């Protein structure tokens, strides 16, 4: 009989996803307590009262009815890449060609492809902190150093450009921007983006710009600034997805495109293309739904944003009414990132909060070292659930502050 356990490689210890880890603790809670938790930890609108507009659902069904069951081109269906070109022209004024576009299984796949195929082990990528954790996880897995640049909480979480500059060395290849950012809800102005672009230009770096929340912005803004359209001669790889503004999280469809006026990214693009061949294809019928989403009516987005803005206002007001909590107002996305003004580790805090209130939130340190002493809250649920959660958090804070 075989008796040796098969050991995963050492680098596998880097594979962690804090947002999902708290879910395991929540499962334990539900089993032992026999009570449901209130989950404020997963950024999936479709788990709450949001779903994709009917015309894109119809396009998905039509794609199935008309026999689009095959593997698509590994780069994505040509029709969809053409639709992306038209969409990016309309939305951001960019002049791309379908060859500049690669269709991916959500933005998550683009993150993995870029970190797997664009860096040598030992290379450095500057990432925001706090950040969307898979960037750090994937970087570590592939031996890339994710150097965390500080985002300044007292300036609504905008990046500290001086800190960014201090992190750059001969190993640095690129700067990652996430705008609007997850978990802080920060939206950077064109001026901040220009400063980042200038820094990249000064050191011969390219910029990776994750803009998947670009249309989920509040306070009368129409959209967050697009990095590529401000980049002049600095190359930019933009990551986009149908998951957020188009509410199609489970369809797993997104894209990346390159803005590259001097053809400096050609070799990387060729490698990304080959890499995508190894996974054959993104979901084919979902690509036809994505085409309908990008080229069809856009009016559902305003409805979604208005609904989210009311929820943002509610959580922002209620968190700041609690003495031991302080939160900046998110300007975009659907997350708020409150600070815990108590002498307690954030991991410990989130576990205690769960076991005392049944509320599931991930600890801030899982979003990078500048996320410590915080936790992230998704404000996707309807108001009555958010109010119930806030009542419980308020009571809990009074208890532990005693
Ligand atoms: N990038 C950011 C900043 C995110 O917040 C997420 C998901 O929450 C993703 C990428 C991945 O999204 P998807 O793979 O659903 O497109």
Describe it.
The protein contains twelve helices and 14 strands. The chain is α/β, with parallel strands linked by helices and 402 residues long. The strands form four sheets. It has an eight-stranded mixed β-sheet, sandwiched between helices. The structure holds pyridoxal-5'-phosphate.
Please give the count of helices.
12
Helix content: 40-55%
Q: What does the average pLDDT come to?
A: 96
Catalogue the ligands. Answer: pyridoxal-5'-phosphate
Give the SSE map.
Layout: H1 18-33, E1 38-39, H2 54-65, H3 78-92, E2 101-104, H4 106-117, E3 124-129, H5 134-141, E4 145-152, E5 158-159, H6 161-167, E6 172-178, H7 190-202, E7 206-210, E8 236-241, E9 254-259, H8 266-278, H9 284-295, H10 299-320, E10 325-326, E11 335-336, E12 339-340, H11 346-357, E13 359-360, E14 377-378, H12 383-401
Parallel strand pairs: 1-13, 3-4, 3-6, 6-7, 7-8
Antiparallel strand pairs: 2-9, 4-5, 8-9, 10-12, 11-14
Helix pairs in contact: 1-11, 2-9, 3-9, 4-5, 10-12
The chain binds pyridoxal-5'-phosphate.
Pyridoxal-5'-phosphate is lined by residues 43, 106-108, 132, 178, 182, 210, 212, 241, 243, 249, 254.
Short description:
Helix content is 40%, strand content 14%. With 402 residues, the chain is of the alpha/beta class.
Kindly list the characteristics that best describe this protein.
14 strands, 402 residues, 8-stranded mixed beta sheet, alpha/beta, two-stranded parallel ribbon, binds pyridoxal-5'-phosphate, single chain
